[in-house]
Amino acid sequence: MTFSHHLDKAAVVTQVPGPKSLELLKEQDRTESEAVVYSKNTPIAIKRAQGALIEDMDGNVFIDFLTGAGVMCLGHGHPAVVQAAASQLQALSHALDFPTPVKQTFKESVLSILPPSMQENMRIHFCGPTGADAVEAAIKISRIHTGRHNILSFHGAYHGSTQMAMAITGNLAPKHDLPAAAQSVHFFPFPYCYRCPLGLDSSSCETNCYRYLEQTLKDSHSGITRPAAVIIEPVQGEGGSIPGDRKFFQELRRLTTELDIPLVVDEIQTGLGRTGTWFGFEHYGIEPDMIICSKALSGIGQPLALLIYNKKYKWKKGAHIGTFRGNQIAMAAGIETIAVMKREQVLENVRQSSAVTLSTLKEQLAHVAAVGDVRGFGLMIGIEIIDKESRQPCGGTAREIQQRCLSNGLLVELGGRSDSVVRLLPPLNISPELLREALSILCLAILQSTGSCQ
Predict the structure, then answer these.
(1) For position 180, what pLDDT does the model report?
(2) Is residue 74 part of a domain?
(3) Are 189 and 154 in contact (CB under 8 A)?
(4) Are strands 122-126 and 371-377 parallel, antiparallel or unpaired?
(5) Of the residues 325, 343, 361, the one at which a domain ends
């Protein structure tokens, strides 16, 4: 693959969007639905990509700190993963739920990266091609097992856009046109200690969140019956790159065990190394009942979603099916992705790159009034942008920072309340050189921002 510029750095040679990108963006407006998101926030048309770099139609090269919303965990077009996918395409590409050698090896690879104490007790259910379908599967089997209906989720959560997945998502905006979607779901505070959801002293934030949850579930007059499941993200992604708290998660695990409530961890974005461990829940020293995985599983953008669940939960034949559960290309690529990550010590690179990123940002931005918080695990990092006077979330400034980054060769996404959090999701194997360049672009964009919250 040949780029218009060298592959070692960003290079912006036109106004963004350039004329060729603008032409395709206009065609997108004319022919696609109004639900398009990413190209509205980042107005480019992509020609090709390799590693941590993307080239648009006008020859501009950007460092990719979006990576397909975390899908391209090894960057674009990793040679070994591409070769594995290409070889499998020639042999067998789709097999419904029939057993195949590739499927067997893929299952063994996935189970091998679980904590050893879990490996013998877990089974894999292949879901439809999106993480949202795996969310649906987790809720379905929890309701079947418990005979209960309510689901407990958390403020700031994001679990997908299907009816049920949206119902257990914290963001209110997409629910206004579908009010019935929120039935049978109860939301509790997530330990977002920078902005304690209970309005209390942040020094005891995580304890307060947990105590409120336990008191409510044990109160005979709380109005909330015992739920069929508790679903939670180890790190809230769309909610603003908010890491959980170890004590909170350990107490949550104890409580759900005591009350016989399945604990489901949504690892759609955190899974496969994003936080510096294979799975985000490992940071907390817990063992969940179910793990939802999707985005990075194939390492190449081939759709694949799994529910990894304790074998005590039982399905009936045909209880959760779908045509596209047999993507052999995705499985072959996933086998090689896990092998590459082990062989090339990618998890260690995540931890080292995370330390460099967090220390650089905190040092460079320590005295910037518009920066409220820098946080994250591994290479799932967020910078919360605030109004200098009110200290409230400032989406206007965050959008300005995003556009300044784009104009200088860096793709970043926004999330959190008012889209005020600049989110960093670089490839897990990002090189030190490209990481430094990206951080330089980012810090300059923040320092040059005007601070408008409109």
Answers:
(1) 60
(2) no
(3) yes
(4) unpaired
(5) 343
Q: Is 136 left (phi over 0), alpha (psi -120 to 50) or beta?
A: alpha
Specify whether 252 is located in the same domain as 369.
no
Q: Which domain holds residue 297?
A: 79-343
Reference 329, options 84, 30, 11; nearest CA is 84
Residues in the chain: 454
pLDDT tens for residues 227-278? Answer: 999 999 999 999 999 999 999 999 999 999 999 999 999 999 999 999 999 9
Report which DSSP code applies to 122: E
- At residue 191, the 3 state secondary structure works out as coil
Place of tokens 């304890």: 207
> Phi and psi dihedrals of 335, rounded to 5?
-60, -45
Q: Are 46 and 402 in contact (CB under 8 A)?
A: no
Per-residue model confidence as pLDDT tens digits over 344-389 = 999 999 999 999 999 999 999 999 999 999 999 999 999 999 998 9
- Residue 95 pLDDT exceeds 60: yes
Query: Using an 8 Å Cβ cutoff, are 418 and 409 in contact?
Result: no
Q: Going by DSSP bridges, is the β-strand pair 413-415/421-424 parallel, antiparallel, or unpaired?
A: antiparallel
Assigned domain for 438 exists: yes
